Each structure stands twice: as C-alpha cells, then as structure tokens.
Amino acid sequence: xxxxxxxxxxxxxxxxxxxxxxxxxxxxxxxxxxxxxxxxxxxxxxxxxxxxxxxxxxxxxxxxxxxxxxxxxxxxxxxxxxxxxxxxxxxxxxxxxxxxxxxxxxxxxxxxxxxxxxxxxxxxxxxxxxxxxxxxxxxxxxxxxxxxxxxxxxxxxxxxxxxxxxxxxxxxxxxxxxxxxxxxxxxxxxxxxxxxxxxxxxxxxxxxxxxxxxxxxxxxxxxxxxxxxxxxxxxxxxxxxxxxxxxxxxxxxxxxxxxxxxxxxxxxxxxxxxxxxxxxxxxxxxxxxxxxxxxxxxxxxxx
Length: 303
Fold this sequence. Notes:
The protein is an alpha/beta fold. The protein has 14 helices and ten strands. It has a six-stranded mixed β-sheet, sandwiched between helices. A four-stranded antiparallel β-sheet has the order 4-5-3-6. Strand 7 (232-233) and strand 8 (240-241) form a beta hairpin. Helix 5 (59-80) runs parallel beside helix 7 (97-104), helix 5 (59-80) runs antiparallel to helix 8 (110-130) and helix 11 packs antiparallel against helix 12 (244-254).
C-alpha cells in the first residue's frame, strides 16, 4: 500500500442530503449521528438529509454537520477498506476540517469533537453577526496579486485579506462586505478569471473573528486532548503537530489566521504521502491537490 494522507473538508462543503447514503450502508455511521444528536440537542441526521438548506448552511449547524459527516465517512472507510487506514501516515483538514483530522488522529474523542465544533460554530456565528462581512473566492491571481487586490479595495478602517490560500490561482479573501464589493468590481481588471462570494456567515480567518476567540478557547481548555497517533498538519503554520498543548493553541489561533492549505499539502507530500483520500462532502480538496501536484492520486469518500 502507498503511504496515505487523509484530508477533511471545511465549511461550504455542506449540502442537503449529506449522510443519507452513508447511514444507509453503515451501522457505525448511523451510530455516530445518533450520538452527536444527543450531544447537540437536535436530530442532526434529519437536518443533514432534509434541510432546509438555509438552516444547514448556518454556521452553528453546518460545522457539526460536516464534522459528523466526515467521521461517518471515515467509519465507512474503516469498514470497507481497513488496509487504507492502516497505511495512513498524516492527516489535515481545511479550517473546520482540522477538527475532523484531530479526531481521526485520536487527538480528541468524537464526543469532544462534536462539542468543540458546536462551540466553534456558535461563537463564530455570534462574531459574524456583529458586522456585515463575508468571504469570496478569487480565481486566476497569484498570492501577490490577491494581496494587491485587497490593498486596493480595502476601505478605510475595514478588513480585507487573504483567508484561505488553497492552491495556485485559487485563494479566498475575507473581510467587510463593503470592501469585498469593492474588490469584486476591481478583480477582473486585475486579471482574475472569477470572483465568487462564498456561502459563509462572515469574515472567517481574520481579526473580525476575535470576539469568538474567548468562547472557543474556553471550550478548547475543557476538551481532553491527547498525543495524536498521527501527525496533524496545522492550518496556521502548515507543519505537523502531535502535542495536546500545540492543538489547543493552534486551534484558538486558527479562526483569526489565514489557512495555509497549499503549504500543508506540499509539506505532506514532502513528508512522504503518496496518495490522498478526501473524507467527507465534496471534491474541493481533491481539486486543490490537482493544482499542486497532478501526479498524486486522491480518492473521495462520502455521499
């Protein structure tokens, strides 16, 4: 078997219907949804399968939904292809997906993971409600050009910055809505092929999320982190970590820091990963890998 890396998607990957196929074919997946629903206080599987989309896409609901879906997909993978999991050498997750990666690496329990993503989603939603803000995907510009776009479009006393550095030519920016609107009007003239608003509540991975930090940090300190069984490549510095103290500090910093996803994938490949599996909703992460190294295969596991 090749050396395997697991990748877990973040917010924005959610869709109505998620979990239906997984829970129909895997008893373990269904049990995870049942366990999560008890912790959350609502029927997560019903929300995931039936929606409505507006509720499922709300930050406080989409984050638990995506975490549990990824864990259900991982359980299904374990049932069908135990040899794949035995060959995993590293894990990473995009933003919210980092919590899924930590659970996969046994750095946190599934139950603590559910509690943490619920607290994360609730605190980030409250922070987003304080000021009109959001995110957008900018396609076709280098990191330097995206920085220049943000500098040109940013209005006085507002925030606008790169937030998710996904892969060459694909960077998400985050900030106040007025500055995002200004960037949208300038993007094409600066060479961007596409400027697309993202379906998220606010300016994630910027200082506008600072009001969420205290509540999240309190939840992180209550969680029982342990030494991970696998290196977890952090969004904050793109480096592998296994220490419980590192996880607490990095996750607290993550919500206000840009996501170094491209660097994480490059470092995982340098670490020796020969094949990836995207575990959860969608194929976005497999797409970013293709833009970085087309020779590395990536299979997608989920609905």
